[in-house]
Amino acid sequence: MKIIVIGSVAAGTSVAAKARRNTEEAEIVVYDQGKDISYSVCGIPYKIGGEVDSVDRLTPRDAKWFKKRYDVSIFTEHKVTKVDHDSKKIQVKDLKTGEIKEDHYDVLVFATGAAPLTPPPFDQGEYDNVFHVRNIQDLRDIESYSEANQPKKALIIGAGFIGLEMAEQLVYKGWNVTIVQLENQVMPPMDADMAFRVEEVLMANGVHLHLGDTVKTIEGEGVVKKVVTTKGANIETDIVILAAGVRPNTELAKEIGVTIGATGAVAVNSKLQTNVPDVYAVGDVAESFSVITGKPIYRPLGSTANKMGRIAGDVITGGDLEHRGVLGTGIFRVFNLHVGQTGMTEREAKAAGYSVEVLYNIKPDHAEYLGGKELVIKALADKASGRVLGAQIVGFQGVDKRIDVLATAITFKAKAEDLFHLDLAYAPPFATTKDPIHYTGMALDNALHGNPLMTPAQLVETQHKGETIQVVDTRSAKDFEKGHVQDAIHIPLGELRARAGELSKEIPTVTYCNKGVTGNAAQNVLINLGFQEVYNLSGGNKNYQSYLKMLKRKS
To answer: Do residues 437 and 489 share a domain?
Structure first.
């Protein structure tokens, strides 16, 4: 059997390595039009910023290593230009010599990845100072240009993972950084209220944000010197980084009749097989499916690409591995803020037809007397089943382990109540006695069973509509005077039982404190006193004020 893999980054090399581990009988050949193999795209910003000291750290393996270790022949700078599946032949062009040759296969694997988008008007000309951040050659080009021209002002188009990581690293280099983002928030896959917390950190570190905007015109011949945005902003720059997203490289697959899914990537089954016999697709060129809904989704991440490659390599050589789907779990760092997410956002869950309970849980990641710092967890559960559907977390430490616990729990269909019963590690340097995960489970489960929550968005909308509601601030007079919810009645928790007669038991009531705990205690008091409909403001006044600030900034 001869296996040909097109593409040699995370997915392609994983296919080859796993296939070889399973059998010594197969001939395995990999073609890639790039110069480098098995490299870390995600590490590129950190090399540019200086946290990684050598490009060799991002390219630990080469074709010679693979040949010696796995007896896999990898041909770099070789572009597959045509596939004839009827005869099971491919046409390959040697990009160094121009020579064209044919090769044959029994099994073909598309690991062609995804190409970075070049948004208008950058697609209308060639500019020496405009770069993508997609491969090691891009890294070399950026560093070469920077060394020769010493730029000090950078314009980044796009505010996803790469855009934000580049912003951080370029600020660390001492550059003036501006981001232009099409959507009205950074990190479009997140909910806007959580992404806003990222925006605040960016601005606090001197990054200029132009959200809900695009570049309209470019000034400069051969190099971009200035751009004018659709909203009229004039931005001078020395270098432009395009990080506006990617598009799966499906052209070769389309030519032989491979089905392209609704996401725009190659449709595959759980064995990573396409609709064409003996043809597989893995990594950023292939779509995955949601662990929660079972529906196709596209999440081009290196971690997923590695898994898909291993599964395909196993299946091709007689194994029984299957792809079990993804949650779209991701994490990044922007300056000192860590940001993670997994599963569905509130927006996605509602679009999918779920009625969700939404919790904002604000807790220290470990004992405050040992330097614990605040985490903000936004978690949601399905009201009908109690199943946890997704979470987003921002904080300064401890985000990674909480998002991984939640990803694991969601994968195994945990309900909100299950989170409280997890036997998680505790010691003061690492956690609180009840971990933020435990609190998340407790509060969500309470909300599903008699202690409903109200989000700041729901409260603002209710008041905006003029609906009858009474809001009770249970904090101290000092905290109340600093800032409170519109039209709130101030009754500290210690006085609530005695003063409950000042409130109507028939009117929907919202209690709140600074972060949510005392508000929940007040909610229980009023429920036990016979109040008919009592909500706790999720995340308390702190979360409410953050939401108002977001509305004001984006209005």
So the answer is: no
